[in-house]
Amino acid sequence: MKSIQSFLFATVLLFGFLFSNHLSAQTTYKFKGGTDINWSNVANWENGKKPPAELAAGSNDIIIIDHGLVKLDEDFTMKGGTLKVEGYGALRVTKKFVLDGGNLKLVGNGHLTEWFQGGEIHFIKGGLDVENIQSQMMLDFQDIHFFGYKWHKTY
User: Fold this and answer.
1) Helix/strand/coil percent split, the chain, to 5
2) Smallest Cα–Cα separation from 46: which of 61, 59, 58, 64?
3) What is the per-residue pLDDT across 38-87, written as a single tens digit (0 to 9) for each?
4) Can you tell me the distance from the alpha carbon of 106 to that of 86, in angstroms, rounded to the nearest whole number?
5) In degrees rounded to 5, what are phi and psi of residue 18?
6) How far is CA 21 from the centre of its chain?
7) Pick from 67, 126, 73: which is nearest to 95 by CA?
């Protein structure tokens, strides 16, 4: 009986350890391009690992766009994690991008733009860091929402 209890205790301890490591694990998603510029194309991401449609609150995941133009052609929500647009990377938002936690970092020459593609950007909470004087957020948006306030551009 004692050996069964010891085995069960060790099994529960092992699963608890494995599960806790899984919860705190960080995944890095890096856009490599090559096929086209679409975010939705799995072939454009290193190792075929495309970010999920939502980074959950408490996530430590990192998404890196460090060269070329990436077209966010599907809705994406960040409640955790970090999206870094750096180097000569640019993110063109053509659907709905929601920052509801986590961090959006524009570094170096990194750009965030919508370029009249009908996209929407919603900043609800979280960090928006522009870390270098060359970084910019081009406010050529049809609709942009900052913490509950909406600006609509008319042509």
Assistant:
1) 20, 45, 35
2) 64
3) 999 999 999 999 999 999 999 999 999 998 889 999 999 999 999 998 88
4) 6
5) -65, -40
6) 21
7) 73
* Dist CA 132 CA 111 (whole Å): 11
Cα-based angle 32, 34, 35 (whole degrees, multiple of 5): 120
* Local confidence band at 155 (pLDDT 50, 70, 90 cut-offs): very low
Structure tokens at 35: 């096929």
Report whether 91 contacts 119 (CB < 8 A).
no
Altogether, the residues listed in the chain come to a count of: 155
Of the candidates 102, 110, 30, which has an alpha carbon nearest to the alpha carbon of residue 69?
Answer: 110
- Hey, which bits of the chain come out as E strands? 28-30, 54-55, 62-72, 76-78, 82-93, 96-106, 111-113, 120-130, 136-137, 143-146, 149-152
Token pair for 26: 């960080």
Residue appearing with tokens 């609509």: 152
Distance between CA atoms of 59 and 34, rounded to whole angstroms? 28
pLDDT band at 93 (very low <50, low <70, confident <90, very high): confident
AA identity, residue 60: N
